[in-house]
Amino acid sequence: MDGPVQELISAIAAPGAVLATSTKGQHKVEVAGVTDRDSGTSVTPETPFRIASLTKTLTSAATVLTARAAGRSLDEPLAELMPELVAISRAATRLTLADLLAQVSGLRESVDSDAVAALGDGDDALASAARLVIEAGRDEAPGERWSYYNGNYFLAGAALARLAGSSYEDALQQHVLKPWGLTATGFATPDGAALGHEGDAAVTDADYPRSRRPSGGLWSTATDLLQVGERLLADEALLAATREPRTPESSTTTYGLGWAIGPSGQMYVNGRLTGFRAVLLAVPEDEFVAVGLANHEDALPTLAHAVSALQQPHTGDDIAKDLDAFAA
């Protein structure tokens, strides 16, 4: 990461940032800045950042792996797993878990963050959010149009819990976090976490509603996220299921299960949450993974440019605009 990439990371409009790569399991990490301007604590590869919608990649992986363990297909009607949905709304007809994870459900996008935050953090919070999503009905048949909607993942998280016979959090822990060795990834605000920033002001960390967790609630580190990419690439069946395009040919975005697919088959996603920005990318053919994390709302364009530069020798593509503009 010498030369131009070092200049890029130094230019990021953030108190702190991390760029990290894994090539065939060999890690290289660059860090710059501090976790908090007031404390002056330095960023390290083990500094936790909020990863926002990168959470969807882990929710997707956990769902694929849980379904595999249960002998269930992601393409079977969701109503077979959750028969009560049909009684709530006809929108459940023909809907599958794959439709939700691929953001092609056709569900009406009327359930926002405020609506689900009002559901509280009890054991039934996610199930209640799923009910709101399905009660809203649908605008199109599943598979007709790709549209990025967090409600898809509220419902997918509830379905994952049903598949696992546990809570969503326990299913994620059992099928991804623990077996993949992601010891620094979780929903509770960890010690030493980076503090988000907007402009020159620090952002007070707010609890992330339990009902929204499947779509964007995790904290993680550069080291753990490299491990996410490595474990995905090492599991051929998981990679194939995740990377298969699920969007209609007319879509301007190609999307699998929790990942956008680039022009050379690279997989990527970004994350935006108040005070934080994140990028994760994988090039399966070269066993290459790249991570960019920063604790400032204005950092994404520069992170996207840096991660694009890191993957360009592997693909020949400049995808900085795609990494920045992705819908998360």
Automatic annotation (TrEMBL):
Instruction: From the UniProt annotation, give the residues forming the signal peptide.
Output: none
Gene3D superfamilies attached to this UniProt entry: DD-peptidase/beta-lactamase superfamily
InterPro entries associated with the record: AmpC-like, Beta-lactam-related, Beta-lactam/transpept-like
Domain Beta-lactamase-related as annotated: residue spans = 7-299
The cross-references to SUPFAM superfamilies, in alphabetical order and at most eight, read: beta-lactamase/transpeptidase-like
Taxonomically, which superkingdom? Bacteria
Name used for this protein in its record: Beta-lactamase-related domain-containing protein
